[in-house]
Amino acid sequence: MNPIIAAAKLHLNKREFTMLVPLYCTALAAVLSALVSFLFLRAGSVPGSDAWVDSSRANPAMLWALAGYLGYLGVQSVATTFPFALTLGATRKSFTAGTLLWMLLMSAYLTAVLAVLAFIEVKTGHWFSGFYIFDVNLLGAGDLSRLIPTVFLATLTLLSAGGVFAAAWVRYGSLGPVVLASGIGIVLIIAAIILVPSAAEIFAGFRLGWLAIAALAVIAMSSVGTWQHLRPAIVR
Question: How far apart are CA 48 and CA 165, in angstroms?
Answer without folding.
Answer: 44
